[in-house]
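User: Can you predict the 3D structure for this chain?
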Amino acid sequence: MTDPSLFNTFLVWPIINLLIGIYKILFFIHFPYALGFSIIILTIAIRFILYPLTTSQLKASKKMQEVNPHLSKLKEKHKNDAKTLQAETMKLYKEFGINPAAGCLPVIVQIPIIWGLYSVLDKIVHLGAKDVVLNINKIVYFDFLKLSGSWDTNFFGIPLGQNPSGLISKIGPIILIVPILTFLFQFIQSKMMIPHNKDKTKNKEKNLPASKAGEKKKDDFATAFQSQALYIFPVMIGFFSYTFPIGLSLYWNTFTIFGILQQYLVSGWGGLKDFKFLKIK
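Assistant: Here is the predicted structure, written as C-alpha cells:
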C-alpha cells in the first residue's frame, strides 16, 4: 500500500485522504455504516468534479449522433473521392459546430481519475482489520486523519470486502440483487446513450442497387453489433460485480446512477424511449 509510484503519489493517496476525511466526519457524528456511506459520498464528489468534462463529452457525442445521417450521405456521394470527402466532412463538422477531438479530451482526463478511485476502493476493501490502521496512517497527510482503531466494514449487515459469490452460501440468493442491480443500472445507461429511433416505420425497400445493398448490409452489421454490445457490456459488469467485493459494486452503482442522471439532463432518455412498456415520452 506504500508503493511510491507517481500514480499513487499524485492520484491514489490524495483520494484516500479525501475518503478518510469523509469517514472521520461521519464517524464523529456517529453516522451508521460510515465506511459504506463514505464510499458513496466520495464517488458522488468525484462525479461532481468530473461533471463539466463528462457533460462536454456527452454533448460532443450527441452532436456526432445528429450529424451521422449527413455524414453517411457524404460518404455515399464522394465514396470514390477521398480528398473531397475529407473536405466536405470538415465543412460539415464546422457547420454543426463539432470539434472531432472534443469528445476525446474529456475521456483522456477522466480515465486516470476514475481508475485512481477504483484503485483506492480496491485497496481499502481488501485491507484486513489488523492492517487498516497501520497502512492508512502511513498515507494520511495530517495527524487528525489518522485512525485510532479498525473500522466497521459492514454496510447494512453486508461485509464490503467480500463478494456475492462468497456470500451466497451465508446470506442466500438475496445477495444476487447486487449483481442484478449492477446489470440493470449499466443497461439503462448504455441504452440511454443510443439515439432514440424516431423513424417508427422503417422502409423495407426491395430490389436495391448493388451499391445501396452493400451500404445497407454495412448499416445492418453496425446496428447488430451495437445491439449486441448493449447487452454484452452490462452482462460483463454484472458478472464482475458477482465476483468483486461489495465495496466496489457500491462504488460502481453510485457512479452509474449519477451517470444516468447526467445523461438524462444532457440528452434525455435516448434509446430508452424505444421500450414501449416504459411509456417514456
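The first strand starts at residue 154 and ends at 155. The longest helix spans residues 34-77.
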